[in-house]
Amino acid sequence: MASLTLPQEESSFSLRSQDNSSSKGSRVTNEEWESAKTETEHIYIDQDQTLATTMEAIQYKYGLEASERKWKLKLKEWGFEKYLSSAAMKILVAKAERRAVVEHKDTAFREGPAASPSQQTPANVFYYTPCMNNLEDISGRTFGKMGPGSGFTMWNVITINEFRDRYPSINSFKELLSMSNSSTQRPQGVSAAISDNSSLLPSRLSTLAGYVNYFSKSISWSPEEIKLMYPDWYPETARNIAEEVLSISIDLSLRDESEKISLLNGDPKDIEVSAANNQSTFLPHTTHRHTLLNETTLSLLEMCQISPRPPEILLKALEMLDILFQLKLDPSMSDSFILAQICEAKGENDEAETFYRQAIKSFTKIEYLIDDKPPKVQHHFGKFLMKINRDGEALLMLLNVFTDWMSRIDRVGTGSFFSESRQHFYSDECGEIMKSLQVLHAKMNQDGTFAWAQASVSRLQTLRQGVNIFGKEESLLEFMRLGAAYSELWMFDAASLVFGFAAPRLEPFNSRRHAFERACAYGDYAQHCRRQGSPADQSTLELAFRCIQAVRRYGESLGPQEAHYELMARKDPALSRWMRGEGVEAEPPF
């Protein structure tokens, strides 16, 4: 272990301090330490006092006097440690987040002594249940499972090329199976390098099949644990697979039909048969393949959206995924979402809409488990409706998911690491939906009628600077103006959705600065209610009157902005009469 070199004087002082501490601490017997153990735990752990406070209290009660160094050694021996290693903290944070999401519970941790010395596992030793025999690389080294304690960590996802170099013997998929399931020796007669064949499609397909097989069978953690601990692991692995599948599909499209048939009747067929024979009923194995297939399909669709490809290339790539994974996408839960995107990519709009609606319905039933999925699906569905020119429905879908995300920011709370990270996540998602709304408003503003609504959406995007920005008065006022714009366009469903979200959240604010703006906003809401024949217009106007009354109490001159909104308030007939003092003792004229 590397050590620091200290100046001579400082080193002498350090040595003298240690000598003194040692002689001082040696006077305390084991019996004295044990007599104070329970009280030490109560003060230091249960009451969460500092070490200095604990030492002072124990010395006062038991007369036990020892150096700080001796105390730290004894606390470590007893297991009374408050501070954990970074590796341990990663695990605890993941567990806390998981309990918060799944069980909606706060979590506190405490580390105590082992039940007995024989049960204690050393800090650098991990245990886990392996799910397949080890694979061996070209140098003869054995690689264990990916999971706790393995030498192959999940934050180092290897690429297809790195995998090919590490396991060249997988030029035949059957040889890969015999190597991974029976023997620790590489099959005889297998070339140590396939660089000469790496450009051949059968070899590339065999390598890809081995890549999928290796990752889906050599992970000791569950998919849920991986997503919590290493959220980028599945997407990175899936991206590697999708890039190779897409590249092979493009190569196939450049060949004539007879050559395609010759290529696909060779090793790829062996891959399909071998993969089918090698399917395991072991649940973790199957769920990893299923999760990886879902992620790969999404990654493939995203690549084709970023860089559009001919439909036949995408279809060929999807066929290859069926061969590689030997799993069918069932129309339920997340698979419905994937099928919707596949149908959308194929131009099968009716089928895509059916699967989108089925996915939204399925996710909504278990929203308490996966609270971020339903709005994500709705966002995609909104963009799909916009794509097929059903703009009115798209607007309602995007507004609904937008207000849904913002409601989550209010619910998640503040203060903890988890809540702040979730707030950032929700705020980022709001920003993405805001971009979709801006695109939709620009599309609907071809004749200029949506200019007011488009301006409100743009201002909302500008206001989105902080994590909890949507709880601020300025943003809520802008939402009220957006609702008024929709109402003026006789888009009552959209207006009601926006007013319904913003009006109750605006009511607790009572700042003088925005009083006239609030009055105008509630006046617009009351006008919208009157257009719909809703009785809520009177209670809404009462809120507007109270906003103005709060300003009039001060008797101060109005600034330019306040004067502007006062002018707007006077344009409302009911507000104008009340501001002129008409009615009974200047009360709201109801």
Automatic annotation (TrEMBL):
Q: Which domain of life is it from?
A: Eukaryota
Q: Which residues form the Clr5 domain?
A: 30-82
Spans annotated as Disordered: 1-39
Biased composition, class Polar residues, residue ranges: 1-28
Kindly give the InterPro entries that the UniProt entry links to this protein. Clr5_dom (IPR025676)
* Name the record gives this protein: Clr5 domain-containing protein
Organism field: Hyaloscypha bicolor E
